[in-house]
Amino acid sequence: MAGRIPERFIDDLLTRIDIVDVIQERITLKKAGRDWSARCPFHDERSPSFTVSPAKQFYHCFGCGAHGSAIRFLMDYDRLEFPDAIEELAARAGLKVEYEGGRPDKPREDVSDLYVLLDAAATFYREQLAGNAAAREYFRNRGLDQATLDRFNLGFAPNQWDALKNALGTSPKRLALLDKAGMLSSGERGGKYDRFRDRVMFPILDRRGRTIAFGGRVMGKDDGPKYLNSPETPLFHKGRELFGLWQVRDANQKIARLLVVEGYMDVIALHQYGVTQAVATLGTATTSDHAEILFRNAADVFFCFDGDRAGRQAAWRAVESVLPRMRDGRQAWFLFVPDGEDPDSLIRKEGLDGFEARLKQATPLSEFFFAETGKDVNLSSIDGKARLAERARPLIGQIPDGAFRDLMYAELERLSGARTVAPGGHAQAGSRTGGRGGGARPAQRSLVRTAVALLVQYPALAGEIEPPWTFSELRQPGIPLLLELIRLCRDRPALTTGALLEHYAGREEAGPLNKLASMDLIVDADQGRADFLGAIAQLDVQTSQQRLDDLIARQLEGRLSDAERDELRNLMANKPAHRRK
Fold first, then answer.
1. In terms of residue numbers, what domain contains 530?
2. CATH code where residue 415 lies
3. Which of 462, 456, 454 has its CA nearest to residue 528?
4. pLDDT band at 557, cuts 50/70/90?
5. What is the pTM of this model?
6. Taking 60 as the threshold, does the pLDDT of residue 425 lie above it?
């Protein structure tokens, strides 16, 4: 795919970077045996639970579960996007980032010009506000002070067809840039005119504080839409941007929470009254990209919507977007404002203390989830309980592996009485700790888990065994993942633990692998090698036993071929050993 950064480049980059140096530039680390420790920068804590391993090139917080490589740390701490984190580390290592097929979005050679142009547009609208009494009166009536106008760089678009176009230049190149930036509209005859006219203007900023788009609102009754946003452009994708996020970052050294509201004025009023963690989606439902950005910036997210049917539908769409990102340590709540109110009017009426009191009474995600999935369901009947289980189970299955998912399954089991099963067929809640099933399977899974854990912590062990791998035929949970890991580590011999986990970022296996990576195995490299080879040898023995059992079963059924009869005789006489280097 053009624009994609090759994994081999990422592997090479991570071998040149010491994660301890990267993190120590941002937080204070203290030596703790082989590793380094600190109080976690991603959640409040009194005693250190944040560990950085130079051997694994990996960090992990035992309190909130934050983890990853140097790339992930920059993404979460500096709030960078993945390509930007790579660029940052590459510059540090003196490398030029490689892109498959060239840099992404090749046609965007004028992207820097677009930033300059949109910042110039914001300045123009700001100057127009200073000279327009009606627009200033509108903001005054909305209760905004001068400091808030300045903080959000609010402006006004004159009621003219070509005010912005004439102010910023009418050369063919300039007009093409204005059009590409979404600032112009086309007439029936192909002519270009200003998209925003006679509206108060709200600049939309990216994470670096650069103007990337605008929202415009009419000041009174008008035939056009009440709000008008910039269209999708090379710089602006409304499903990936949050209004006010730059101001939140600017006002808060550490963002303890984020509050998601629906309108520009809601965000601005909340900031003016002291709730400086408010953001808004841009005329669209909460998307998966929004959810990722929200949780990348804060572990606690409050969604504030109207209490009507549309508001509750918007809240449910938010639930669907955040569930796949609700790893341990993250929390979400829902606050529904009274009829006829919005966050803007509510905080003016009740003040900061009143609004904070409402936030304290917000509904937790889990409670809202079961209220909505249990709506119109008679839980006193078997049919109703079955319907609840049918609705809730696939949604809970999207939650990353961890305590929150286990507790959600447990609550579903309590409400429905149905024994819940996670994707992959493993029973949840009480059955996880060994209530049912018994037999040899838990021990077998433990053996695979040991091999995977050792491989995650010592990726070079994959080079100790040569294909073909006998145990690949073993019908046992975890075998496909173990094989995938072995192939990955053999193909990329420079892989560190941190780089390996980066490869699985966003996949279902990421959570379990992170837990294995953070385990203290209390073994050195030599002992780890012996334990790994011993685990593989035992898996080979189990594979031979599995094949022996299969052949005996076929013999009893009278379906054994001559070749299988010879194989059975050989297996019973001498089971083959695993081939090693």
1. 441-573
2. 1.20.50.20
3. 454
4. confident
5. 0.64
6. no
